[in-house]
Amino acid sequence: MVRYQYLPSAVKQYQCKIIVEIGVLRCKRARRMIEAALTFSSPEYIFYYGFDLFELWNSSVAIKEQSTQAPLSQAKAQTVLTNLTGANITMVKGDSKKTVSKFAAHFGKYADLIFIDGGHSVPTIASDWKSVQPIVGLNTLVFFDDYYINPHGRFKNKGCKTLIDSLSQSAFAVEVLPQCDLFKGDDPNDVTEDHLVKVRKR
Ligand SMILES: C[S@@+](CC[C@H](N)C(=O)[O-])C[C@H]1O[C@@H](n2cnc3c(N)ncnc32)[C@H](O)[C@@H]1O
Q1: pLDDT tens digits, one per residue of 137-148
Q2: Residue whose CB lies within 8 A of the most ligand 1 atoms, among 49, 67, 124, 130, for a mutation test
Q3: Which residues line ligand 1 (CB under 6 A)?
Q4: What is the CATH number of the domain that holds 68?
Q5: What's the pTM value of the predicted model, to 2 decimals?
Q6: Which end of the chain is more exposed for a tag (fewer CB within 10 A), N or C?
Q7: Could you give phi then psi for residue 180, rounded to 5 degrees?
Q8: Which residues form the domain of 89?
Q9: Whether pLDDT at 62 is above 90
């Protein structure tokens, strides 16, 4: 997936050491981001916070949140990332609509990078964005996955486009990143573009 190249690149470019990811799944992106941070920092200074349903994921969530792959268990995700990277790993289990706001309200500092890639329904993405606000500072990079252009089939009415297009241009610098992945539908003309979006406070 070409669009994900932006995440490790941003970690390196901006020297991100406090990384928050909503939607851990199987730790693929988490690993890439932490490995990028390990190129300029030793592991004890890197802090990763991952939010997922983990064992609470089920088939009805899969449909509602367009989240069809089962995530690892919380313990497995914790062990895998800790053993692979040696960084400080915290995994939080539960619906991000509840867990993230509680965490952000008490965190007491700003994240360097936040990747919002949990549930794909419009209300969940809006909630995740609202929940992270206390940990978004002027230097925080927020990435959203799944800005669909020309959405067809299962992509219709999903993803972050509704939220992103509603953001105030004077309050936020929004960049729809150019390298995207393409998903073809049954009709050859039905091609959905899937982009990552970068948002910073102005
Ligand atoms: C697309 S996957 C994340 C992929 C991961 N960011 C990566 O790139 O490797 C979405 C994840 O979000 C989780 N998820 C879906 N809805 C959620 C919710 N309401 N609260 C917490 N996690 C949720 C799913 O369990 C799934 O693991």
Answers
A1: 999 999 999 999
A2: 67
A3: 21, 23-25, 28-29, 51-53, 57, 61, 65, 67, 71, 95-97, 117-119, 124
A4: 3.40.50.150
A5: 0.97
A6: C
A7: -130, 165
A8: 2-201
A9: no
